[in-house]
Amino acid sequence: MDDLEKKLYHDLSSGVDVPDKIKTIIEESLKDTNIKKKKYPFLKVALVTCACLILTVGIVYAGTKVYDAIWKEPEKVVGPEDNVNEEDIMNKNTMTEEEGKEKAKKILKDFGYENEIIKSINIETNAQNYDIIWKCETQNDIFVEFDAKGNEYLAISYDERKILSENIPKKQIDKKEAETLARRICEKYGYELSKYNKVYTIPYVDNNSFKWGTDEKETKAYQWNVIFSKTYENGINSFENIRISFIAGVEVVYYFMYENANIDDNPIVIEEEEAKKIVLEAEQKIQSDYEIENMYVNLDIAQMNGDAYLRMEDYNLYSKQYYGNIREDFKDEEYTRYRTDNPVRKVWMVTIECNEVSKNGEPIDKYYTYQVDATTGEITGGSHIYYLLRLQDKL
After folding, report:
1. Is 308:370 a contact under the CB 8 Å cutoff?
2. Nearest one of 185, 180, 183, 221 to 203, comparing CA atoms
3. What is the pLDDT of residues 171-226, one digit of tens each?
4. Helices 42-56 & 20-29, crossing angle to 10 degrees?
5. What is the pLDDT of residues 338-349, one digit of tens each?
6. Are the beta carbons of 192 and 146 closer than 8 angstroms?
7. Could you give the C-alpha distances from 134 to 30, 99, 100, 130, 144, in angstroms and in order?
8. Predicted structure pTM score
9. Where does residue 382 rank: exposed (0-12), middle (13-18), buried (19+ CB within 10 A)?
10. Category of 258 on φ-ψ map: left (φ > 0), alpha (ψ -120 to 50) or beta
11. Residue 213 half-sphere exposure toward CB, CA atoms < 13 A
12. What's the CA gap between 99 and 308, in Å, rounded?
């Protein structure tokens, strides 16, 4: 056997998990081997057949296991979303407008607004992924939105400026009291908090001298934002949380959001150094004139997105859209995004650090973070602000 045959023979031997969707294809493909044996050894034909199938049906070969590839060619979205074909949307297992109105009424009732009358209801898509949201507004300007496919996402909000313009009692409370009040609010609306093990308690402060990380421990305010999140060994799932904004004193909630997008329990197969190598290879294909000074790698939990794909496909367009001016450097109707599915998975976040100015004097990201799937090694997204937020969180 040559090196490829030995590798495949070892890694596709008995006891190795092979996705069901290729087992049948492999069996059917190898029925002809008696004919092919006249020219090639049976084992070689079998191994090469397996290898070809792995490359053509969306399979990732990692270590001694075979995994389904999760990355699919993203959909290119150019220009505004106003020209969405609603008929096509409604055919994608989406609740009807009448069903949407009934759900909105139930949400309003659950939050104590059973007498509200729905003034408008509209469906909204997302240019970044395939989420579809019903958005409702009542005659008293209460806004309700929820996932139109039945996924666990809802938000209800009210313009707090209207509340604050009224003569209402406002009570200054500290950080600990704000968290206690937020917990009481969740219990009131039937949301159980035992699974959430990370809490962010943030005061609304209109003061430029306010120092995050120190002053909020001592400050008192009557407006607070509290976020209950679920943390895992490798990070925080920012799509599995409850967010509340309220005014203490009258205990009025002017924003409540619940999202429960569970993470895929994907195994960590790719190692840190391998993830760095994958990103460096991707960077070498980008026609840019900056130099990478440092790299930072950490495991985290993230949702798939098309940002890195745009960066790798057309770095010039990517730069224009982030640093240019609409109508000067590009037209609004030419604004480009890549829409992907949105699974939440364990990933390696690989951050490259560069000079903030390119050799030609053009602005660039000081930091850019690629997310590399921890199981398949595919680049499944990216962010130009991830590392900055991570630095802020450490303060």
Report:
1. yes
2. 221
3. 899 999 999 999 999 999 999 999 999 999 999 876 555 555 555 566 889 999 99
4. 140
5. 999 999 999 999
6. no
7. 50, 10, 7, 13, 8
8. 0.73
9. buried
10. beta
11. 5
12. 37
R_g over Cα of the chain: 26
- Beta carbons of 315 and 391 less than 8 angstroms apart: no
- How far is Cα 194 from Cα 167, in angstroms, rounded to an integer? 36
Domain ranges of the chain: 3-68, 78-260, 272-394
Do 356 and 375 touch, CB atoms closer than 8 A? no
Element (H, E) at 183: helix 175-188
The residues facing 303 across adjacent strands are 344
Residue 93 tokens, joined: 């297992």
Residue 294 dihedral angles phi and psi, to the nearest 5°: -145, 165
φ/ψ (deg, to 5) at 321: -70, -30
For residues 195 and 263, the answer to whether their CB atoms sit within 8 Å is: no
Contact 13, 43 (CB under 8 A): no
Which two three-digit tokens encode residue 353? 């650090």
Total count of residues recorded for the chain: 395
* DSSP letter for each residue of 356-393: SB-TTS-B--SEEEEEEETTT--EEEEESSHHHHHHHH
List residues bridging with 294 in a β-sheet. 353
Q: Which two tokens stand for residue 198?
A: 């990370």
Q: Helices 42-56 and 3-11, interaxial angle, to 10°? A: 80
